[in-house]
Amino acid sequence: MQFSEPERLFKVWEYSRTHRTLLLRSDSDLALKSRPRIELSAGNVQVMFLRSLMRGLTLRRVSALAETELMARNYGITEHLDHMFLLDSPSGEGLLVSGNPSWAMAEAPVDAPSFFSRAGEIDRYPGAVSGQVS
Known about the structure:
The chain is mainly beta. Helix content is about 10%, strand content about 45%.
């Protein structure tokens, strides 16, 4: 399953090198109108090539052997080839080698903690939805 939100503005919100986790966040659409918060979280990050700001985003696992080999060659990756994810954005392409990224979306206050900050955080918000890129 892939994640796609082509009309949203995504930012690198946080990276923890001690826990090797990456958090991307979107609070607005491309016209900068406030929208429900969307967060993408990836753990066990081995490699990341991405822009700090992405205008629209599709995230999917690189699964075809030819594409995997091409991406590995282009980015100089030799390990964990079965955990490659492509970040496709009009702002530019990116690559992530990590565990399966998860996403969550809900109406939340701007200063509320991340949906991934503790177990069950997303459940605090009515109508919240979540999933995983696999």
